[in-house]
Write the structure tokens for this entry.
Amino acid sequence: MYYLSGMNASQICLRSIELTDAPLLLRWENDPKAWASSGSYNPLSSAFVEAYVLSSNVSLVERGQMSLVIQMQDEAVGYVQVSDYNAVERRAALGVYIAELHRGRGIATEAIRELIQYLRQRMRCEHLYATMLESNTISQHLFLKLGFVHTASLPHWQWTGERYEALYYYQLWSE
């Protein structure tokens, strides 16, 4: 098991995804309440999730994306994702999922903070961004708190199963 970050005061660390995480990831990815935010439209199979986990050991540079489990003490409580990584432009997109039982405890803030530090220091990213639906005010507040700026909106962009919503872009860049 590889740890991206060491344990800090809040006991949160980011670690590589292991095959033993597949059942938990399957449950999280198949949560219909999270589909609108993730852009998913259908359940995933266990074979698909296991193949994803096995392929997740390819480097961020090669694959352009990576997922890391958020671990608190000995329990996986969510994950962070990096996608759209571009070494030339030095940018990447970020995402986070926290299991329902663990929400509202500052875990996402600490996990994204650790991820930003890694991407800035190790991967030399200058531009980070996140997209979220207009109804996802919790994520909007999270990214604003971390210094991201709301820079763009795509109105009437994503179907949520009930209606179209705007997609918001939040960016963080180095001065």
Q: What stands out?
A: The two ends are 35 Å apart (CA to CA). DSSP finds six helices and seven strands in the chain.
